[in-house]
Amino acid sequence: MKKFLSNYKSTIILLVALIVGAIVGIIFQEKATVLQPLGDIFVNLLLVIIVPLIFLTITTSIAKMQSPKRFGKIIVTIVVVFVITSLIALLIGFASTTFTKLVDTEDGEAIRASLEETSEEETEEEDFTIAERTVQLLTVGDFQELLSKNNIIALLVFSIICGIATKMAGEKGKPFLDFLNSANEVVQNFIKVLMYYAPIGLGCYFAALVGSFGASIAIGYLKTFILYTVVAFLFYFIIYTLYAFIAGGKKGVTEFWKNALPVTFTSLATCSSAASIPVNIECAKKIGVPSDIAETTVPMGTSFHKDGSVIGSVFKIMFLVCLFGTSLSTPSAIFQVLGVALLANLLITGVPIGGGTISEMLIITMMGFPVAALPILTVVATIIDPPATMLNVVGDTASSMLVTRIVDGKDWMKDKKD
């Protein structure tokens, strides 16, 4: 019992804090938003440490790698794992919505009517070529722009190149590497200190979230939320258990579930993949994933690998398919849904600012729906955000185990100390 409490102490405390927060939110409803600032303090401190955390962990991890071949193998393996797991999420998302009518005709009328009451927001959009968007995605025009969490992918590229350059410098680069290692240690301890406040911060944040959640929601939205939540948790328990078993056998499953709960609660409470990076890296390491793999897979996964968003893109499309009575009776129509969902998800992860809106506009235009449907997708995206973020984040934990299995072989968990 003592060992159990020792292993799960932080998890139990976080869970109790979230339960208390939920109860407060339910009882006091909108009045619970008075606790929002206490939650925002925690989330803001997490977000402000993201940029130095990503830069320092990736740069030092690459610079300390003894073998350049290992780095190349890790990156290639990460890409392969991300592609395969994203395709699995895509197919499960489609299968779960094919035989369910998310919106009935009468509900669709109510939803369309509600759009007339929604104030329109003007969004400025510029036309860019694919090449120009790629440049904006991978680079920024000023060094200071790297210091924003909105340019995570550009920061990843910069960190990788900086790590390679530091390694190439050899002995002359050692003082710089020592400085980075020292700074990285400080950042890691910053996170440890911050996590002492986590139960209060997450509890208050969750209370405000539950208290402000609107009760007046169309039945179509409610169906979508319920179905997505069920699919998300089935995916969470079944698919990630399967991934853990493939990666490390029975011990892999045990270690995964022993350490995955803190990052699960963090993702659900904050609804932020970026804010979950510190906890996620720590969870992966506790499972037994080597530092160089954990510190590369998790930050890259935050930008490029989102199981929950892939499934969410399918749900958005199928919501509109039901709403507007679109036929999916031909193979080409089905492939169109799958292709658009995958492409829309890539835009969510790829565009630094406004990726969600751009991806939703892509769904509307490529599927031939009216532009007036944009607010509908915004609502869908909002109500599925917590479970989607959970899958996005925990999917990176499971992926780091699969990457380790491929890079270090089937016996990688034998070095894990109980």
What are the secondary-structure elements, in order, as H or E?
HHHHHHHHHHHHHHHHHH
CATH topology: Proton glutamate symport protein
Any idea of the CATH class?
Mainly Alpha
Report how far the terminal alpha carbons are from each other: 16 Å
The CATH architecture name reads: Orthogonal Bundle
Mind telling me the C-alpha Rg?
22 Å
CATH superfamily: Sodium:dicarboxylate symporter
List the helices and strands and how they pair.
Blueprint: H1 2-28, H2 36-48, H3 50-64, H4 68-98, H5 105-116, H6 130-138, H7 152-168, H8 174-195, H9 198-212, H10 219-259, H11 261-270, H12 277-287, H13 291-304, H14 307-324, H15 331-350, H16 355-367, H17 374-383, H18 385-408
Helix pairs in contact: 1-9, 1-11, 2-9, 3-7, 3-8, 3-13, 4-13, 4-14, 4-15, 4-18, 10-12, 10-14, 10-18, 11-18, 12-13, 12-18, 13-18, 14-15, 14-17, 14-18, 15-16
Please describe what this structure looks like.
The structure is a single chain. With 418 residues, this protein is mostly helical. Helices cover 77% and strands 0% of the residues. The chain has 18 helices and no strands. It has helices spanning 2-28, 36-48, 50-64, 68-98, 105-116, 130-138, 152-168, 174-195, 198-212, 219-259, 261-270, 277-287, 291-304, 307-324, 331-350, 355-367, 374-383, 385-408. The two termini are 16 Å apart.
What's the quick description here?
The protein has helices spanning 2-28, 36-48, 50-64, 68-98, 105-116, 130-138, 152-168, 174-195, 198-212, 219-259, 261-270, 277-287, 291-304, 307-324, 331-350, 355-367, 374-383, 385-408. The model is unreliable at 115-125, 214-218 and 350-355 (pLDDT under 50). Helix 3 (50-64) packs parallel to helix 7 (152-168), helix 4 crosses helix 13 and helix 10 (219-259) packs antiparallel against helix 14 (307-324).
